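Re: that chain you flagged

S.,

Sorry for the slow reply, it's been a week of failed gels. I finally had a moment to sit down with the sequence you sent. For the record, here it is as I used it:
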Amino acid sequence: MDRGTFPRVPLRDSARPSRSEVASERARSIFTESGPVGDRFLALLARLLHEAGTPSHRIESIVAGCAERLGMKVSIFSLPTWISISVDDDGAQRTTNFRVDPGAPKMALLEETFRVADRVSSGELDAAGGLAALRTGYEQLWRPPSAATTLGYALFSSAAARLLGGGIDDMIVALPVGFAVGVSLRLSAGRRERELLSEFGGAFVATLLAALAVMLGARLGLVANTGTVALAGIVTLLPGLALTTAMSELSARNLASGSARLMGAVTSLVVIAMGVAVGEAVVRTLGLEAPSDQQTLGTTALAFDVSTGLALVLGALGIAIAFHARPARFWLVLASCVLGAVAARVARVNLDGALAPVAAAAFIGIAGNLYSWLRRRPTGTVVLPAIALLLPGSIGFRGMRDLISRDASDTLAGLDTFTHALVIAASIAAGLLIANALVPRRVHA
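Prediction finished late last night. Pasting the C-alpha cells below so you have them in one place:
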C-alpha cells in the first residue's frame, strides 16, 4: 500500500458542513463554466480520472480517444501535479492548464468516469451529455465516512501483519497500531503544514505504539514481533503502489510523469524512514525493544490457513474502504485480493527472483482485462486491490532505512534492498504490459 492509497481524513466538528454539502462545494470548485463545451468535458474528464488515481499515460489515452470520437484534435500532457490540454481549432490553438494533487485510487469514481468515457467513445453521448453525466455522477458519488476511513487503516494493518509473515497474535496487536496511525493522520488534516508532516508523524506513532502494544500484549499472553507490528502499522503509508505506477509510466515511455512519481515515492520513503528512526530512538530511551532489534518481513511464500483467510477478508475490507469502493463491490475486492494472493504464492513456489512478480502481475492483469471486456468496467477494479497486496513498498522501506544508517554495512545492504524493491516494481509493471499484449484491454479500461 502507499500514501496515496489511504486518503487523508478531514477533521469534523459541528461547525463544518455536512458530507453532501462538502461534496457539492467540491463539485462546484472543479467544474469550469466558461469555454467551449468540448474543452470543458475533456478537462473535467482528465481531472476526474487523475483524482481517481489513473496513471498519466492512461489519462492521455482515454482523453485522446474521447476527443477523437467528438471530432476534436487535441494534445494532452499529464503529470502527477499538472495537466495541460491543447485543442487545435482550424489552426487556432486553445490550451487549458490546471494544477492537480497526486490522485489516490478511488474505485467508485473510476467506475463512474469510465462509464461516461465509454458512452462518449461509443457515440451514445456528445460533449454536452458527457459533461452533464460527469457532473451528476460526481455529485452523487458514494464516499466513505471519515471514521470508516480511519478504521480502514486498522483493518489493513492487521491484515498486513499476516502478509508480512506474522501470526494471529501479530494481527491482533497490529490492529490498534494501525488505528492510531489513522487517527494521527486525521488530526494532521486541514492544514498544509501538518499534512506535509503526516507521514513522518504516522511513522513515529506506529513505531512507538508498536513497542508499547507488544509489551502490553505480552501481559495478555500474546506473542508478537515488534518489527512486524511496526511495519504493519506504517504499511498504509508506504508508496508501494506509487512505485509500481511510476514504473508502469516509465515503461509506457511517459518519462516525465514516471520520473516525477518515482521521486515522490522515494521522498516519501525517506520521510517515513526518518520518522521510524526517531521513534526507535524514543523507544530505546524508554527501555523498550525497538523494531530494528527484531527480524521482520518474511520472504517465503505465504501459507494458506485460517489466519491467512482472515487476513484476506480484513485486507479486502480495508482496501474497499480506502479505495472508496461502493459497498456492493466488496465481494469484487475480496475476489481480487484472493486472486493476488494465489497468484503471488504460485509464482513464488514455481519461479525464482524477479520472474515471480512478473508472472503474478501478468496473471492478475489478464484477469482484470477479461473482467473489463465481460462487464464493461475498468481493469483497475480488479488489478488495483490485487497489486496492493504485493507490498513492494515494504521492501523499499527496509532499503531506505538501511541507506540512512551510519553503519557502512547497513548502507550497502540498504542499497541492495532498495534496488530489489525497484526491480519488483518494474517486474510488476512488466507483467501488466505482458497481460495487455496477450489480452488487450478495452480502449477506455
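What I noticed first: Residues 31-139 form one domain.

Talk soon,
D.
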